[in-house]
Design goal:
The chain has 559 residues and is α/β, with parallel strands linked by helices. It folds into two domains: 145 residues, 2-Layer Sandwich (Chitobiase, domain 2), CATH 3.30.379; 363 residues, Alpha-Beta Barrel (TIM Barrel). The protein contains 15 helices and 19 strands. Helix 6 packs across helix 7. It is globular. About 4% of the residues have low confidence. It binds ligand TNX. Ligand TNX binds next to loops.
Length: 559
């Protein structure tokens, strides 16, 4: 399999034939109106990436000359050997609810014709993405001809849920920047943008910010700190998204077959909320706890004993549900530090209930298993283990071991309940683990910005990890042996404690995010690092075309 498509397709057979030459004016013919916007975006992207202007043609007779033809019909292998058994439907949960849509497609590149077949528009979109990668990564012969080698491709995803969790609380990203992240998800056939909208450092929902359009929390004491203009200031705690900003993102994402899953993270990680709503202080929910022997830390949690807590959360969740139409609402519930167990349990149960009343399905980080699990719960598993830097003092080791031991109990609870699990194992899906690979271009002529980011980005509590090590994992094994059927999807996560702008963000997303996308989509038989590394090497060009900063690791032979 020699190609540059990430995630690697289920089947990719090179034919050895002459392939197809894209030229200015090459016709892109399609008959089905619903796919018109996709064809339009495809042509725009090809023009932007290569300078070639293609000619979309809707309806009419089959074109006589060389063309790209797109048909909404069951994906099959046209005019070839007997069709293989249909590819299996993806495993796991559909982020849009119900049965997963059919994302399969077939793409044949042969002399004089490219033929793309898919049963559903989303399959057409996946096939066009593959074609964009083939064209953009092709070693171009000349400015007015781009040749894609002959190939027969048959493809479908392994998991129905393939996401990225984006921390917009520790760093603020503008709507335009989030659109660029969605573009990147589309390029790697990811279909979930999980927005971590609240944390200790900031509350990014307009609801609750005095002066924001729409009702504020509406209690007399809610004057709060002076806040910046919506979306204007990158200061943590100041900027927030207006409801219309989020609604716009929902639409932008939906056009690209991405579902936004909003996360409102409580009862822990709630400092920013208590700052805006001091009446949620109960006298016992701002605590100091012993993080390490002799090291005290402050923690804040929402108190289930206080009626105002749920009065507020009911309004918050209703508002969030009105903005985000998807079936899932993420309740966070991670790291309830300093909170008595019984309060955590009663809080999480009550919050899940509020989510269900709104007709939505709650989803929580793995700690939420401690509140018990019913058949309709979904858990996102993250703390599978943690490699500390060699320099970590023994007390830190002891603390981490204690947390990992707790998380093993969560895994047992999750296994016993047989609920679906979104796999986000820290060592493979957390994109804020520092890169262990040295930067390319080190030494004389070193790129100072790369060296700076390499030294600064990623949390230093984690031992640095190479891109190859991050890539080596098997999602089906996340919960241990015999638990493959529970794995319902794969999500990368980028946490923003060390990030101070969009270029920092894209440096941590690239090149690891395409590796997570590969694990979520591709057949494990195509999982070797050397193959992935060689495909990655040809993607630096695409990121550069998009103006995206990426980590030029010395371990990849960037072309
Ligand atoms: C753990 S993952 C957290 C986040 C941090 C992250 C840093 C999770 C549910 N909680 O609050 O940002 O580690 O990697």
């Amino acid at each position: 399999m020699d190609h540059a498509v990430i995630p690697a397709p289920a089947r990719f057979d090179t034919t050895g034939g002459p392939g197809f030459a894209f030229r200015p004016g090459t016709v892109v013919a399609y008959a089905d109106t619903p796919i018109a916007p996709m064809v339009g975006r495809f042509c725009t992207q090809i023009a932007r990436r290569t300078g070639l202007r293609l000619a979309p043609v809707h309806g009419g007779p089959a074109p006589a000359g060389p063309s790209v033809t797109i048909e909404l019909a069951a994906a099959r292998e046209p005019a070839g050997p007997p069709a293989p058994a249909a590819l299996p439907m993806p495993a796991g949960l559909s982020p849009g609810g119900g049965d997963p849509p059919d994302e399969s497609y077939s793409l044949v590149v042969e002399n004089g014709r490219v033929l793309l077949l898919a049963a559903e528009p989303v399959g057409v979109a996946r096939g066009l993405t593959t074609l964009i990668q083939l064209v953009a990564a092709a070693p171009s012969a000349s400015a007015d001809e781009i040749r894609v080698p002959g190939a027969r491709i048959l493809d479908a995803p392994r998991y129905a849920w393939r996401g990225l969790s984006l921390d917009v609380a520790r760093a603020f990203f503008t709507v335009e920047e989030i659109r660029r992240v969605i573009d990147l998800l589309e390029l790697y056939k990811l279909n979930v943008l999980h927005l971590h909208l609240t944390d200790d450092q900031a509350w990014r929902l307009a609801f609750g910010h005095p002066g924001a359009s729409g009702p504020a929390f509406g209690h007399p004491g809610a004057s709060g700190p002076a806040l910046g203009q919506p979306g204007a200031s990158p200061e943590p705690g100041a900027a927030f998204y207006r409801d219309e900003d989020l609604t716009e993102l929902v639409g932008y994402a939906a056009d690209r077959f991405v579902t936004i899953v909003p996360e409102v993270d409580t009862p822990g990680h709630a400092s920013a909320l208590l700052g805006l709503r001091p009446d949620l202080k109960s006298g016992r929910n701002e605590v100091e706890y012993e993080f390490l022997p002799g090291h005290r830390r402050r923690a804040v949690w929402l108190d289930p004993e206080l009626p105002a807590t749920f009065e507020l959360m009911e309004q918050v969740l209703a508002r969030v549900a009105a903005i985000f139409p998807g079936p899932y609402l993420h309740i966070g519930a991670d790291e309830p530090r300093g909170m008595p167990d019984e309060d955590y349990v009663s809080y999480v149960r009550r919050l899940r209930h509020l989510v269900r009343i709104l007709g939505r399905q709650p989803l929580g980080w793995q700690e939420s298993a401690r509140a018990g699990l019913g058949p309709d719960d979904v858990v996102q598993y993250w703390l599978t283990g943690l490699d500390l830097p060699a320099s970590a003092p023994p007390q830190v080791r002891a603390q981490v071991e204690a947390e990992v031991a707790l998380s093993r109990r969560d895994a047992e609870t999750v296994a016993a309940a047989s609920v679906p699990v979104i796999a986000s194992p820290l060592g493979h899906c957390y994109l804020d683990v520092p890169y262990a690979d040295p930067p390319a271009d080190a030494g004389a002529g070193a790129d100072a910005a790369q060296a700076d980011r390499h030294g600064r980005l990623g949390l230093r509590v984690y031992a640095p990890k190479s891109i190859a090590e991050s890539f080596r994992w098997e999602p089906a094994e996340t919960l241990g042996p015999g638990r493959a059927a529970q794995v319902a999807g794969v999500e990368a996560a980028i946490w923003a404690e060390t990030i101070s702008g969009f270029d920092d963000l894209s440096f941590l997303l690239l090149p690891r995010l395409p590796g997570v996308a590969h694990r979520a989509w591709s057949d494990p038989r195509h999982g070797d690092w050397a193959g992935h590394r060689d495909r990655l090497a040809r993607h630096g060009r695409l990121w550069a075309q998009d103006g995206l900063t990426y980590f030029r690791a010395a371990t990849v032979d960037w072309t």
